[in-house]
Amino acid sequence: MDNKFSAIRHKTSNRVLTAVGIVALGLMVAGCGGGGGSNNLEVSPTPTPGVVTTSLRQTNLVSDQAGVAARRDANLVNPWGLVVGPSGNLQVADNGTGVATAYTSAGNLSTPTIRIPTAAGQTGAGKPTGIVVNNSSRFFVPNGSKSAPGTFIFAGEDGTISVWNASIDPITATRAVDRSNTGAVYKGLAIASSGTVSTLYAANFHSGAIDIFNDTFTYIRSFSDSTIPAGFAPFNIQNINGRLYVTYAKQEAPQNEDDQPGAGNGFVDVFDIAGHLLKRLVSQGQLNSPWGLALAPAKFGNFSNALLVGNFGDGRINAFDVNTGKFLGTLKNAQGNPITISGLWSLAFANANGGSGSTLFFTAGTGDEKHGLFGKLELS
Question: What would the pLDDT profile of 63-96 be if each residue is shown by its tens digit?
Fold first, then answer.
């Protein structure tokens, strides 16, 4: 595609990561064995006396490349957003192929596989990033005579938001928002409901603000953190217990369409659903282009109830106190080194198709986002 949004993907695929970023494919996940293998991880910091250090078992479930995971799926290229759908399957937004694929907790390919549309006037595949499940009776698919609430809603790097319901079109999502003419670059998406009002929030990395849409996909307004240092912009947004957690990454000038990884390049803010800033939860420190967010369950060893933040920049997963932002530690391997997942995007605890609620699923755009990995971490 000969347009600026085509450049987003090419530029994204050429990101330069820090020294702990891209490694040889066979070492794509530090300390991980071959395809489908598992390894024991342990979580820092050192536990209090009498408390056993938490250990995790890692399983690489699916990759687009042979020999990397237990299963292969050519569509899994730069898998980004990840949610558990109504059927219990895990739906993954594949940024590199413009589809959303579904898997069981064991990594078996399931249905649906959904095509994501591009911005108006463009050709080729869409560029999905964040994805949310719509549990409300609103956000209807805009499709003429047929009408039904969307099941999944997708954000796109080309400034689009798409919505899908199988009864409208079983294989293709419908474009509901197109703000490509404003230069919007949506990297993340969140949804919230209060009474009869449902609202959609899109992290506009290019503009440096969160764009708000009502339940008819009409743009309402934007909000931002006026105190965030210049050059940082919303990278992702997630609704956690009724509050909006927003991660910030450093914009790569002059286009300001992709992140510039580096130690300390990141912040995490907390807003209410009206867009009022409640607190700056985490500032720089261990952050490095943070994108993935997950609240650990009550039974997750040393990091129970902690906020896990995944760095796209260096592939590490750090834990913070969800209320104070205090750094609690980093997930490590059995050798005591930080676990590193090249191109790490989503983190999601999910009770999917018989999996435990303490299972942590992840997606990653490995090989400089030219390939992909979907896997899980489980308590041993």
Answer: 999 999 999 999 999 999 999 999 889 999 999 9
Q: Is 12 helix (H, G, I), strand (E, B) or coil?
A: helix
Side chain identity at residue 377, one-letter code: L
Q: Residue 211 in contact with residue 189, Cβ under 8 Å?
A: no
Strands 71-72 and 55-63: parallel
Structure tokens at 58: 């890692």
Going by C-alpha positions, the residue among 229, 185, 226 that lies closest to residue 206 is 185
Cα–Cα distance measured from residue 156 to residue 149, given in angstroms and rounded to the nearest whole number: 20
Rama region for 31: left / alpha / beta (φ>0; ψ in -120 to 50; rest): left
Pairing relation of β-strands 344-349 and 99-103?
unpaired
B/e letters for 158-180, b = 16+ CB within 10 Å, e = fewer, are: bbbbbbbbeebeeebbbbbbbbb
The ranges assigned to domains in the chain are 4-379
For residues 373 and 367, is the Cβ–Cβ distance under 8 A?
A: no
Indicate the CATH number for domain 4-379.
2.120.10.30
This prediction has a pTM of: 0.86
